[in-house]
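Render this sequence as a predicted structure.
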Amino acid sequence: MNMVEDIKSISYVKANAADLIDQINETRRPLVVTQNGEARAIMVDPVSYQNMIDGIKIMKLLSQSEADVSKGKRTEQSEFFSKLEKKLK
C-alpha cells in the first residue's frame, strides 16, 4: 500500500471517482476511503475481491476438514474413491 496514493477522503473520491477506479484496477492496490479522518471503506478491484473470497472459502473448508479429522470423522482414500465411482456410474 502506498500511503499517499491509497488513502483518500470521501470528498476526494467523489470528485475523482473515475480516475481512482482506473488506479485501483491498474495497480491492484486497495484504496482506503476516509470520512472525518477515519477509515470508513475499502475499495478493491473485482479480481482482487474474487481472489479474497476464494481464499476465504478455501480456509473455511480447511477449518471444517480439520474439525472433522479431530472428531474422527474421516474416510480412507481408497474407500472414498470407491464410493465416488459407484455414485458416478
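Summary. The chain has a mean pLDDT of 94. The beta strands are 7-9, 31-35, 38-43.
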